[in-house]
Amino acid sequence: MEDQTKESGSAENFLKNLGKKIDAFTKEVNESGEKIQEELKIRFEELKTSAEKLKTEAENKERWKEVEESLKKAGEELNKAVKAAFKKREENH
């Protein structure tokens, strides 16, 4: 009978220790999950910021293309005006 009591006490201790280890593991998993979730939120915000920056740069490139086209047209018009002015001047001489 005494052996049976020792065995049941030993089994109880084993289960008690196992329960503590499972609790500690569960806590660790939850904490890790929270840390990972925080890291993912940070990464998401970084990606969002990068996307906004790229969008702004793309818009600026489009704007600069428009400016470049306008300047090119203005240069062509100026060139035509200069040629026309010199042509008239040469015709008058």
Protein traits:
mainly alpha; 93 residues; rod-shaped
What does the secondary structure layout of this molecule look like, with pairings?
Blueprint lengths: L1 H91 L1
Task: Explain this structure.
It is a single chain. This protein is mainly alpha-helical. Helix content is 98%, strand content 0%. 0% of the residues are buried. The mean pLDDT is 84.
Short structural description:
By secondary structure, this protein is an all-alpha fold.
Work out the helix count.
1
- Average pLDDT score: 84
Any low-confidence stretches, pLDDT <50, length ≥5? none
Largest sheet: none
Question: Strand percentage, roughly?
Answer: under 5%
Helix/strand-derived category reads: mainly alpha
Beta strand count: 0
- Looking at the structure, what is the overall shape? rod-shaped
- Written as H for each helix and E for each strand, in order along the chain, the element string is H
Fraction of residues in helices? over 70%
Using the CA coordinates, give the radius of gyration.
40 Å
Cα-to-Cα separation, first versus last residue: 135 Å
